[in-house]
Amino acid sequence: MAVREICKGVYSVGVIDWDREVFDNLLPIPEGTTYNSYLIEGSEKTVLIDGVDFGFEEEFITNLARSGVSKIDYIVVNHSEQDHSGAIPVFLELFPGAKVVTSEKCKEFLKIFHNIPDFRIIVVGDGETISLGDKTLEFLITPWVHWPDTMMTYLREDKILFSCDFFGSHYATGNLFVDDDREMHYVLAKRYFAGIMMPFRGKVKDYLDRLSGYELEIIAPSHGPLYKDTNYIIDAYTEWSSDKVRNRVIIPYISMHGSTEKMVKYLTEALLSRGIEVRPFNLANADIGRIAMDLLDAATIIVASPTVLFGPHPKAANIAFLANILKPKARLVGIIGSYGWGGKTVNSLSAMIGKLDVEVLDPVYIKGLPDEEAYAGIEKLADEILNKHKEYNIL
Ligand SMILES: Cc1cc2nc3c(=O)[nH]c(=O)nc-3n(C[C@H](O)[C@H](O)[C@H](O)COP(=O)(O)O)c2cc1C
Fold this sequence. Notes:
single chain, 6-stranded parallel β-sheet, binds flavin mononucleotide, 2 domains, alpha/beta, Rossmann fold, elongated, Metallo-beta-lactamase, Chain A, 12 helices
């Protein structure tokens, strides 16, 4: 990525990872990502905000060389995760006078991940500031979005918030700012929120409240493009972190020989005919990131699985486990599927989603191919979902 000026004395010096397809070996990122790093030149001190991932050291250092900077006093580390801190050891070697500025918790992690010695680290507390001469950095300690170490940095004079992963998106784009690609960006930012921030919705709300006390002209996250229209992403985060659910059912399903699939197809039709949005996801080849995104605001989740070796199909177990840790705001959960001779699929799946604060519907779990009685059971299930959605006032 070229060095680009954001405003006077503030530059983008990070890198674009056009080819990355999966993050954390867990969530697909269909549009790549960026690792954003920012250079701020004050009248007395020069600072770098965050670094880039392992493997991008050369591009990163080249950017710094191109920027013409000869001395960097501090590198602010908002979050120690390796996609931001991977290149920091190389940076510290090349800039021996630079000190890391970070939170107490982040310092702990920088030591265990990179063995950075104490004398290179300055710990800052919540609300503390550092003067760069004509510019001032204020630190906001904001843990748990999404690690215990996360913080944000506010550049007072230019009203720029370096929010790190908060407000991020996995979107490899040459545009420095979100531009006329907002529709595309919105989906990617929502996907990012669902996969990274959804389990911490309470903290997200707290920090949105806190940020409402700051004038924000630019938000500069650590992934994806920056925001000049800061309300756009703040409004989106406000909605995504709210308790509001949509009149929508998502049905992650898997079927080996077609019985469960027939039930899913029937349920899909039954719900559509009742005016309920439905999105079945065939787990054989489903994009887990896309499912996470839909989990964000669906009122109801129906997991559909046959019995395999006395329990749920592993692909269904995987999605139940994922939903349990991502903690979506769904209010209603159901289980449907087919078995041959016996097992504990319903019990096992129910236990896997035990952390979710939901009402659990009666399962429709049948032997073999669905028959008239099974379809009647699905009609009843669709009615129950309809009634609940009416109760929730979302129809
Ligand atoms: C590898 C395998 C293991 C199975 N294990 C069990 C089992 O432990 N208990 C059971 O009731 N049925 C078991 N079955 C039978 C299926 O659950 C049954 O055929 C079901 O109707 C399949 O649903 P589907 O057509 O949606 O795949 C197994 C089937 C397969 C292929």
